[in-house]
Amino acid sequence: MTWVESLQAAIDYMEDHLLDDLSIENIAQQANFSVFHFQRTFAILTDISVGEYLRRRRLTLAAYELTRSNTKIIDLAYRYGYDSPEAFSKAFRRQHGVTPSEARKYTGTLKSYNRLVVQVNMKGAEPMQVKIVERNGFQIVGVKRDFSLVNEENLVGIPKMWDKINGEGTDERLFKLNNGPVEGVVGVCVEKDSGSIEYWIGTAHEGSAPDGLSNLEIPASKWAVFEVHGPMPDAMQKAWKQIFSEWFPSSGYKHAGTPELEVYSDENPSSPDLYSEIWIPVK
């Protein structure tokens, strides 16, 4: 299967088991992806997390059943994965704008999210600036934190980590230490096991790790290096989406499975002329 077909297989599995107690590990297995790679690819292509997709679909089906049956609200709450009618009512109102009790009498429209079908844009309307380079292994020095993939805690925790690093001035220290083959400060995700990742904020540095910093070895790789132009975070998010929806399906390259790099300069992050890079190991 292509990676698009693999992703669709995982989505179909979610749809077939919407009322079951799904785990991200089992979902990712359907696509033959690691948990982190599946979670990230899904979010890039759909703009929502796996957990949010499941919540939206379950509440869509719950609304359908609520308005077309006499099933008790408490039974619906448990059927669609909520521990109590109160939790169900709160989530239902957040999506539909009315409580379950009000929905039974409601004559207006409720918000419906349809089953997802992955489609890849092969037009390539917007050019991508990319080069393929080969690099020997090199060292990153920086700070690291472990994040759980359960309930997608990493999606919340990583931006907070960047805020802390920038607020403490650690980013300035990293820029001064930068003397390796990649220019700038980098963000790196390293998969640890099915339930967690190690996230690094660091810089390419030759020599021993200075006090207070750890070191990470990046293996020798062939890299696809993409230019990113524009303010953060929008420009970076747009570039990732274009890479996965256009470049990978048409390039003939596959992800090599080792850590990717997001490379940031010390320019103003809100500048429309900001230059950044995405480094993806390919084969």
Automatic annotation (TrEMBL):
<feature type="domain" description="HTH araC/xylS-type">
    <location>
        <begin position="8"/>
        <end position="106"/>
    </location>
</feature>
<keyword id="KW-0805">Transcription regulation</keyword>
<dbReference type="InterPro" id="IPR011256">
    <property type="entry name" value="Reg_factor_effector_dom_sf"/>
</dbReference>
<dbReference type="InterPro" id="IPR010499">
    <property type="entry name" value="AraC_E-bd"/>
</dbReference>
<dbReference type="GO" id="GO:0043565">
    <property type="term" value="F:sequence-specific DNA binding"/>
</dbReference>
<dbReference type="InterPro" id="IPR029442">
    <property type="entry name" value="GyrI-like"/>
</dbReference>
<dbReference type="GO" id="GO:0003700">
    <property type="term" value="F:DNA-binding transcription factor activity"/>
</dbReference>
<dbReference type="InterPro" id="IPR050959">
    <property type="entry name" value="MarA-like"/>
</dbReference>
<protein>
    <submittedName>
        <fullName>AraC family transcriptional regulator</fullName>
    </submittedName>
</protein>
<dbReference type="InterPro" id="IPR018062">
    <property type="entry name" value="HTH_AraC-typ_CS"/>
</dbReference>
<dbReference type="InterPro" id="IPR018060">
    <property type="entry name" value="HTH_AraC"/>
</dbReference>
<dbReference type="InterPro" id="IPR020449">
    <property type="entry name" value="Tscrpt_reg_AraC-type_HTH"/>
</dbReference>
<dbReference type="Pfam" id="PF06445">
    <property type="entry name" value="GyrI-like"/>
</dbReference>
<keyword id="KW-0238">DNA-binding</keyword>
<dbReference type="InterPro" id="IPR009057">
    <property type="entry name" value="Homeodomain-like_sf"/>
</dbReference>
<keyword id="KW-0804">Transcription</keyword>
<dbReference type="Pfam" id="PF12833">
    <property type="entry name" value="HTH_18"/>
</dbReference>
